[in-house]
Each structure stands twice: as C-alpha cells, then as structure tokens.
Amino acid sequence: MAVFKKNIWMLYFLIVSITLILFTLLGYNKWDANREDFVDKQHLQVELFSTSVNSLLTSQEALLEVVGHQLVQQSDFTRTAALQIRPILDQLLDTHPAIAAFGLTNKEGNFIAVSSNLSLSTLPGLMERPHTRDSFIEALNSDKMILGRTYFHESLNSLIIPIRKAISLPGKGVQAVMTAGLQLNSTLVFNDNTHYGDYNELLLIRADHFRQFESSPIHSVARYNETVDANMYKVITAKVAEQHDISIEEIKLSNQSYSIATSDPQINAIVTAKYLRDYKLWVVGQTDLTYVDELFAKEFLVYFLVFILLHIGFYLLVNSIAKSEMVAKEQLVYQASHDPLTLLPNRQYMRNDIHHWLGNKTKPFSLLFIDIDNFKSVNDTHGHDFGDKVLKQISKRLINIHTSECLIVRESSDEFILLTPRNHEQDVKALAQRIIDDLAVPYEVNDSQFLLGCSIGISMFPEHGNDLDSLLRAADISMYKAKKQQNSFSIFTSEMQETHLYKMKVEQRLRLAVENKSLFMVFQPQVNADGSTYGVEALVRWIDEELGFIPPDVFIPIAENTGLMNRLGTFIIESSIQQIARLHQSEQIKFGLSINISVRQFMNKRFSEHLISTLERYQFNPDLLTLEITENLFIEDLSHVKPICESLHEKGIRISLDDFGTGYSSLSMLKALPINELKIDKSFIENIHCDQQSLTMVQNIIAIGKNFGMIVLAEGVESNQHFDVLKECKCDLMQGYYFSRPISSEELAVHLNQQETKYAEFSI
Ligand code: C2E
Ligand code: CA
Ligand code: CA
Question: Where, by residue number, does the polypeptide cross the bilayer (predicted)?
Fold first, then answer.
C-alpha cells in the first residue's frame, strides 16, 4: 500500500488494468450472450418451421394416399375414367387451397386423370422430362410421398412443389401414382414471414442439393434451378458435426436441431440444421453473423462510451490529485531546502546542490563564509522580531549583490554562505569588499537606525578542499582571522591551516591533559597599597609532554571552543580551593583567592551548585573567594547572568570584572550587576609612569570604581614606578611581577610567611 501511496499513478494503472480486464470480460460475455440469443431464436425458428413443414407434408401425403386409393379401387383407368375422376379431383382442389392441381398417372407416368385446371391431352408424361422422371421413379420405389424439385408456375405466380405418392394395392403392387402441385404461396407454412429479416433465412434443401424452399425474397426463382453450393453444404454439415461431435448420419437419425456459429469466410453465419427424415429434407436456418455482431457492437457502444467517459473522469481526478500532491511535495521540498525567514536556500539545499559545483574540477569556485559581527547584541537589545527584520534586510542586500551564477545560502542565524564561480583572488577580494561595504550601510528598522558589520572567511575550490566540509572548514578558519579584525575578509592560507592543525593538536592533547590532570595551578599574590598581601589569583598551567609549555591564553580559548572548558573549569576550581584551603589551615592566615571563570563555565547550569559544594567540601569561607569574570560575559544574555551573579553575591562570593577597559561594558551594566572589584587591564598600567593618556585612563577607572563603591585592582605592576603612581592614584590593590610572579602553593606558603597579610580591610 505504501508503494501506491508513493505513486498514485501505479494505483491508477492498476485500477485501469483491472477495469479494462473486467470490461473486456463483460464485453465478451455480452457478445457471447448476444450470439446465444440468436442461436436460441433460430433454433426455435427451425423447430417450428420443421414441424410445420412436416405436418403439412404429412397431411398432404395422407390426402394423396386416401384419394389415390379411392381412385385406384374405383377406376379401371379407361378414357372414361378420366372423366369420372376429374370432378372428384376438382372437388378436392376446392377443399384444399394449398394444392394447385391434382393428377393421377399410371405406372408408366402417363396421366390417367387430372383436375380440370390442367389439360390431360397436352400434359406430358412424368417419365418424359428429366426433372419429373427422377421424382416419379423415386415415388414408384418408395412407400413415402416424394417431393419433386420446386419450380415456378408463371400463371399461378407461385412456386410449386410437386408431390407424388405411389398407390399400391395389397398383393398387386403399385397401381398408380397420385401426384399434386403444392402451391407455396397458398400455404402459411411457406410464406415470406418465415424469416426474421434480411439477415436471416430458412432453407429446405433436398438430398440432390437443390433448394426445395428458400425463405429469403431477395433471391430469384432461378435459384431453384441451381443446387446449393456444394462446398457450403459440406462446410455446414462438417462444422455442425465437428462442433457437436456427432456424425452426419447420427444427425439425420436424431430428429433434432443443431446450431453452430461459424466465421468461415464462405458462410460467416449462425447455422441451425435439422433433417426431416421422412422427406429427406435438410431444414437450415441461417443468420448473418455480421448483422449479429453489428447489433452487439451498437448496443455495446453505449457501454463502451460510458466506460471511456468514466475513465476520462477518473484520469482527470487522478491527474488533479497527482498534481496537487506534486505541488504539496514541491512545497515540502522547498520548505525543507529554504529558510522560511529570508526564503534563501538553506544548508540542506547547499549540501544537495554542491555536487554541481564540485563535479567539474576544471571549473574552480570560491566559498565566502559571511558572519554578521555582534548580531547577538541586536537580538538581545531589540528582541528577536527586530533581529528577524534585520536579517531580512541583510539577505535582500546579499541577493542584490549575487548574480545568477552564484548561490547564496543562509547557513545559520547570522551566517550566510555565498558560492561564486569567481576564483581570481582579486575578483573574490573585490566581491568580499563589496559585500562588506553593502552590509555596512546603516539599517533602518522600526524607526531606529544602526550599523552592522560582517566578517568574511574565504576558501577556494579546489586549492583549499575537494569537498564541502573541507571548504567550509577552511572558510571557517580564515573567518577566525577576519573576526579578529571585524568588518573584514580573509582568504584561507596554508599558515592558517598550520595554525588550525596546531590548535587541533592542542585540543587533542588538552583532552588527555584534562583526563590525566597533567595541568596544575599557580598563584600570583595581590597586594594592598602598603605592600601587605591581600590575596592571590589562581592561574592554570600546562606543560605537555609533547608540545611543552602552552600558555593559558592559547589553550583556554581552545577549551572554550571545544566543549572542554567545563571539565577544565571544574579542575581549576577544585584544585585552587583545595590548595588555598590547605594553606589557610596550615599557615593559619586568611587571604583571598581569585579564580578566573570563563564565560562558558558561567553559562553552565550546574556551575553555582558545583562551586558551592566545593567550598563546603573544603570548608572554604565564601567571603574569601572572588570570581574574575570578563566583560565578554555581558554579551551573553544578561537576564541569565544577572540572577547567577546575585545568588553568588548573596552567598558572600565576590565578583571582579577582569581586563576592565578592553571590552564593551557600559556604566549602566556596572550598576545593574553586583560587582565588587574592577581589575584594570595590564595594558593600561604598562606606560602609566610615562604616558599621560594611560595615566588619565587609570585615574578615570579608579574614579568610576570608587563611585560605584568597588575595590580597584591594577594588574601588570612590574616596577616600583608603577607601584608609586598607582599608590598616588589611590588604587586599592595591585598585582604583578614587581611583587611576585605566579608561584606554586608551596612557594606561596614561603612567600606568605615573609609578608604581612591584610584581607579584612576591604571585606564587605
Ligand atoms: P588574566 O586573567 O588577565 O591573568 C593575568 C595574566 O597576566 C597572567 O598570565 C599572569 O601571569 C600575567 N601577569 C601577571 N603579572 C604580570 C606582569 O607584571 N606583567 C605581565 N606582562 N604579565 C603579568 P597567564 O597566566 O599567562 O594568563 C593569561 C590569561 O589566561 C589570563 O589573563 C586569563 O585570561 C587566562 N587564564 C589563566 N589562568 C586561567 C584560569 O585558571 N581560568 C581561566 N578561565 N582563565 C585563565
Ligand atoms: Ca585574571
Ligand atoms: Ca587581566
């Protein structure tokens, strides 16, 4: 059934085939029944005709017999006898209108007496003419009435059948022959209505193959002088015998009618034959098969037309269903392969279509991976409906740029892919620049105007890959570089590939490192303005057996992008808290611990839960813990970040905003979130002693921090000069190589013993 559902035409053809077969069977049955009707009709016709003929002839024979005997017994056959007999014969004529004339002959065939409508003197003897001689002789030798050949009597305008009966007296043999003329037009038996129409006829055929009677009026009387076609006679008798599996002799003896339908070229008719034994006559009914079949064809034509009409209707119905199914299918295919928002082809479409591009290596092409910069912030700030409108505008602009040979695809929310046959570097660069320029034109949505940029990573076929995945990967790698600059493009190079491979290697080794815990923590002291130790920042370290030392700047982003950050973060939190908790106990001093938390960790649902349980496990006072987060966190959904920060804050954990001044944070955000500490990025400290701009910047940040009631920490303090300037600026805390490099917990124990620690001063 599923197959038929798939293809309605199969079902259609099956139904058509079945109905065609049924219709053919019905047609055949009708055709057969029609012939059968005619056979039955003709059978009846022949039976009735045979009975009528037989009874007519039998009655005539009885008449001849009775009259003949009477005459023979009374007469001496003298000349006067003729005169005596004539009135008797005339009287008989009056009472028997079917008889045209009566005559009585002697054994030699000479007439002794005739009815008065004949002239005895002119009438030739029956032995004198061949056609009368045969029947006369036959009559002499038979005790049955014999029929002579039918002839046409002009003055009577009728066909006449001579009938003769030898009259014998017991012990004396044949005395005379009684003869008469049966006038066919005077008897109902032989009238023209014995046949049904032109297509049907009744025949009486004699043993000598001459017609005794033929019902069809269209045939001339001349036919009575001809025998029936011997061939036809043979064919009929042979076919009847063959189809009924009976011999001719058996048919003759059976006194039954036999019917056949034959399309023999000579006959082509329904033939019914019966043999009248007493008078040696074949009664044959014939109905023209062409007529019979034409009649069937006429009747059946109506059925046929209805059948054809129904089928045309059925075809139209199926066709319309198939068409609407096709439309629905096309719609589904379209929906599955197009992005509903921008109506651009989607990733699936590209995957299906890519073989057109890859098929011919002699036709290079370029793949442009277009990523809208900071699109997330549009959605976050204005909502998704607004974002959708912007995306529609972006796609329209891209459509305006692309030519018929290009394929433009919406890869995911704010990522588009453009495939272009352009492959010369200059052309592709020009195209990329045009895209950047066009997308940089201000957008206007809901009466607000704003700007967006995009980054484009470009890969080329076949240099950068032989399949879609490798081309996408290459474009993605080059996109990474473009993203760093924003609003720019970058074409894939082999160096990028190397960097990429290196990153892959790092990722692979990092996985092992996380598993094997071959990572470790170091701690960098954070000091008060008076030089006493305030706390430490935990920094992760990794020395790989194969790759050697890898800075966290390198592997942290890799861990973030490969889903390793949560496991790595768990390790960092657990090991830092465990080691510092141990120092708290062993050294009996309280100092703060700052842990860097990546955005990825922060977004994990179980982050807080895990942090709190770790603190509890190591009995670490939450008041001593600071989480360093970067401003990147605020690019994420603020409604998600805020409650987490607040709940942590409520538990006494502090939040420090790391790398302050390098990101996107706005002052309103500082107010919205429970931030305890601002950490000035080391890039601002570097030249603080010699560059007025850096100094002003640092002074401003410190002022902002104080305004919001936050502690301000400066990192990257490398010299006494830095320290002095920062003290003067009233910076609360400092961290840098000037005080200590990041050190192991054992080294930290020694370091703490040499320093004074003052944590409580800033506790809130
Ligand atoms: P960050 O959080 O800004 O960390 C401070 C970085 O400055 C550390 O580099 C530290 O060694 C370095 N530093 C300290 N004093 C000075 C100085 O006087 N001069 C200079 N030039 N540098 C100084 P590190 O350890 O290589 O870390 C680099 C970055 O890696 C960190 O920047 C942080 O973003 C990330 N990172 C390091 N450890 C972790 C960690 O455990 N978790 C997370 N999420 N990120 C970490
Ligand atoms: Ca930090
Ligand atoms: Ca920093």
Answer: 9-28, 300-318
